[in-house]
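Re: your question from the hallway

Yes, I did run it. Sequences:
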Amino acid sequence: MTKDILKPTRRTLLRGATALGAAGAIGSPLVLREARAQAAFNWKRFSGTTIDVLLVKNPRSDLMQAAEKEFTELTGIKVSAEQVPEQQQRQKAVIEFASGKPSFDVSGISLHVQKRMAAKGKWFEDLTPYIKDASLTSPDFNFDDFGAGPVAYARQADGSLDTIPFFVDYWMVYYNKELFAAKGVEYPKNMDEMATVAAKLHDPAKGIAGFVSRGLKNANVPVWASLLLGQGIETTSPEGKLLTDTPEAAWAGELYKKLNRDTGPAGQVGFNWNECQTTFMQGRAAMWLDGIGFATPLEDPTKSRIVGKVGYGITPPGPKAHHAGMFADGMGISRGSQKKQAAWLYLQFMTSKAQQIAMLKAGAGAPGRASAYLDTDTISQSKFGKQYFECLLGSAKVARAALPQIVPVTEFRDVFGVALTNALGGADVAAELKKATETFAPVLVKSEQG
Amino acid sequence: MTATTTISQPLAPLQQPATFTHSADFTPRYWLFSVPAVVIVIGVIVFPWLFTLYMSGHDWKIGGGPEFVGLQNFAELFRDARFIESMGHTAYFTILAVVLPVFFGTAAALVFHREFPFRGVLRTIFVMPMMATPVAVALVWTMMFHPQLGVLNYLLSLVGIGPQNWVYDPNTVIPTLILVEVWHWTPLVMLIVLGGLAGLPREPYESALIDGANSWHMFRHITLPLVWPFIMVAIVIRSIDALKAFDTIFVITQGGPGTASETLNIFLYLQAFQFYKIGYASAVVVIFFVIIIMLSLLLLYARQKSKWNA
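Structure:
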């Protein structure tokens, strides 16, 4: 399903034309307001209402908050939005939704962590009836514009769509073109080659690591899970059975261990994405496997020593398949909200084409809407080069969920994170994964019972 | 009752106003004044504790209902290798985080007790770390610990010492966290002990000098015994702080690498707020409470003992 995402068919080109129009409009909020005012859709029907919104603290939420004034002018709805750091926002969401009376009408969630939890706890409204209701949904909204991959990722097992997938993060390889050129090395053609290329570029005497990725417990699991996709499987089967002690999982674990232990920087066992980013940004690593959402500071001359030297490569294919790990954020309407329809207007506005293009333009992440990527103005003006967008589009075509779609995702990451950390310390990969699988299996079974 | 009767009897002949003659009824009314405090204590201390005990006997995840399991959570905890490991880390961390700041703080107090140029300025500089917010301190140290880009390895390289992995190595993570604790909290111990030193009498020292005692003898047999109650206060405060240490460890290592710096507090946080296992986490709290009570009794006993000796 993900393979046809963003394919430049006639239909998507038409959508692109619409997006271009939206992009032009964003340059002039007045024009946009006038266009909306002229439309038959009544944005003012819930004027005077105030809605509460729970957001994760990040640049995308900053953009939403910056657009609140325009939203209030358009709809008359006041917005009281709160940005909370990611970990705490997740805890707040869980506790408030469990109470049955959350203090917010709209909330963002990380689909790769809380998707199943949200479904099991019946956190959100199914948005399908809202999307189909012409009296509630602006003709401009065009839900079909959202990529098939992100939509499939957001859709629950029962077919309901309880969040709009407005942000997608694809895992790819950042590489230092200068270091590659100095040693005459080409970008790896497959996952096995990643290890040989990393070994060629690894130069501890000069303080250069051939490869860097997350080693810290919990944070390291997406790295291993992304490598596992190269074997054509995820960490769980479609039936929900753990595949974490299979030969394929051990292969991915061995590759993870080899890349990090043999060609990683000293101390990388404690690295999260920020340490990896700093190391790479200072020109101390030749390759870095992580989400494309971390690209922004790499091209910032005040923070990075490798501006203009960064290569953006699609995660190389594995022995059996070619996939890029996919992670995404969605926004939904609290089932306990008393202002669901006003909240739906907010959701439409904040995930509109104009907002999604603004996200891409600001380098705040990869939008869920396909039309954003066809906005040539944004692409040509971006500080990221053509290769960045090629990588983004290429990754989208081979995207696949990397983390399991289960309730206890955090516990999964914790248990397997410890196993991977132990492996980096020299422990046997297969034995560690077997032990972790035995520890986690009862947790998974129990999570599906209650 | 006896007391009020005694008062009312001699007052009766003086024909006091009627309200005063009813003073025998006042005692029960006095209880009303304690009601707000009792309500607060019950609401803030007693009820949460009873509820924690109740939850510890249940299998309870946020979002689900409680299921009574008796002592199963406690039994599971003692079979949980992570929990046992975290107890060991807590003991290791606490001992070092108490002993080293107390040692260095006492030494610093002895130094700052003497007169020397710029003493006031230097003392102010010395206590500055204590004023910093723990999370901000932790973030700054995290940057300094970076194996490739941190300033600490750069400083070591200037004196010919190779790079260290600091908090990025399971073997050195706890001693490195202790380094932050020592830097942060030694000034507190210094201030407490310095307060004690300032109040010491001069006479015993004069007598000792006449008797031919040297500096070490005076420190060992006069200063240390006299200042010991203050050191005990510092030990009690540091022990409580070290046992409940969370912010610094969480910000710098999140309990890692792996589980190498996972203390009881981090383990508890994971169970309660990452895995949402409220029942299991409550059992951890109950065990932790028992440990703290035992340690507090031990320290209070030691403090009383030091008072008697002084």
